[in-house]
Design brief:
mainly alpha
Length: about 140
């Protein structure tokens, strides 16, 4: 739960840095750097389009197939590591979107950041999720023996 809160706190801090002008607002929005803005927006969009589904799929693949031969402690550790990888990838997308938003003053980056932050809501840890995961892991291992 601490990692989840840290990601949201980091996004809030980045937002506050942009709102207070510490992140220079619109520095890349002028007419001379229009192509730079297009390239940055395109990069943020592609990064979000690749990273969001990839983070969710990597987590699903590595917590369903790879943990069958592990004991409960190792499976729980691996589950936590892959949760952190998924959350980290989503956090990178959100930060890139927020920074692009303030540098360009274009809502495309903000939209990508919002998509990433909404997807982090899928990562909220709960005892039920972990318990269900571990019981499914135990059932799969018992079926394979």
């Amino acid at each position: 739960m601490g990692e989840f809160c840290a990601v949201w706190l980091l996004a809030i801090i980045t937002y506050m840095l942009g709102e207070t002008g510490i992140i220079p607002n619109g520095i890349l929005a002028d007419a001379d750097s229009h192509t730079t803005g297009v390239y940055l927006n395109t990069a943020v969009i592609l990064f979000t389009l690749v990273c969001v589904p990839l983070s969710l799929k990597l987590f699903a693949l590595n917590t369903s197939r790879g943990l069958r031969r592990m004991n409960k402690d190792d499976a729980l550790t691996s589950y936590h590591v892959w949760s952190l990888v998924r959350l980290g990838m989503l956090a990178l997308c959100a930060e890139a979107g927020l920074v692009a938003y303030y540098l360009l003053v274009d809502t495309t980056g903000l939209l990508c950041a919002c998509i990433s932050m909404v997807m982090t809501l899928l990562c909220i840890p709960s005892r039920e999720k972990v318990r269900d995961f571990l019981s499914a892991n135990d059932e799969e291992r018992a079926g394979n023996i």
